[in-house]
Amino acid sequence: MALSCGIVGLPNVGKSTLFNALTGADAGVGPYAFVTTEPQVSVVGVPEARLAVINGFIETEKIIKAELIVVDIPALTQGAYKGEGMGNKFLGRVKETDAILHVVQCFERQDLGRELPVNPKSDIEGLELELAMADLETVDRNVERVSKKARAGDDASIFEKEVFERAQAHLTDGGQLRHLEWKPKELEALRPLFLLTTKPVLYVANVSDDDVDGVSDFAASVAAHAEESGASWIPVSCDIEGELRSMDADDREMFMGELGITELSLPRLIRATYDLLGMQTFFTAGEKEIRAWNIVRGDTAPVAAGKIHSDFEKAFIKAEVYSVDELVEHESEAAIKAAGKLRIEGKDYVMQESDVVHFLIGK
Known about the structure:
By secondary structure, the chain is α/β, with parallel strands linked by helices. Helix content is about 40%, strand content about 20%. It contains 14 helices and 12 strands. It has helices at about 15-25, 50-55, 90-95, 120-150, 155-170, 185-190, 215-230, 240-245, 250-260, 265-275, 300-310, 310-315, 325-330, 335-340; strands spanning about 5-10, 40-45, 60-65, 65-70, 100-105, 200-205, 230-235, 280-285, 290-295, 315-325, 345, 355-360. A hairpin with a 3-residue loop joins strand 8 and strand 9 (about 290-295). The protein is flat.
């Protein structure tokens, strides 16, 4: 399954501009609220230089990148959890994602109709309160749902009620559930609720054209909040990224050189999202296709096989494994095997970044 992230933010902070820059889509943008009135969803291929490296030594019919699903919902406003504004109607789409990209305004512009001075910390706290209140409504319903069985002595319901009430107390104070420590069984109880504030967050500081490195006071405010909350952040000039995405390759390279930009935002955001989620990449390679796959760090070989087909996890027998670096060094799979570098791994093998794998699957 593809990795997915949901873009959230207040009105006019650059959400849809970022979405367009990441995906090459054409979501509406403009200097007024609610230009986006429906969720925008796009699937993008994850940039991966190692695919070309592998293809340099293994001929194939096609190359398939790992995929990232990006969801942009209408802007959230104060009172969204109560049904005000547009974005609240579509929060369910973000609930289905793996991570949240929270876009924060870190520039000043007079034509956006903003009534209050730019204040990234206040904006972050205001939007996260809306997410907390949306989660609180979900938790309240589920506390009520399990209470009757809990009073009747059902052990599972008693445990769920305790977990939900702990979440309820934290959300009532406007807290984010990802800031609490949860035991694995507690997280398992919360998972079916698809709570927004349990998801890891990457703060995207939408900086001005003259602050692409994110050194302004506005960007520093986002960085400080991210550090305090144990989250990550990244500066992006969404306007510049949108312009670069629309250029041909030669003009883009020249413009990026003039601005001192070494790469577009998509690779940087994907790396940051991978780090956020503890993801890594492995590859399969053969005559039919060379393909990149996403897994979580610490996943075993059978779990990785299950990413290819759900039945493969149970039917896993063994894996033949080597690294991309070993392929570069020996130049062919046959030479890797002759050098004794082709490893035969069993069910307990923990996958490593840049593994190239052939799985042996039983019937």
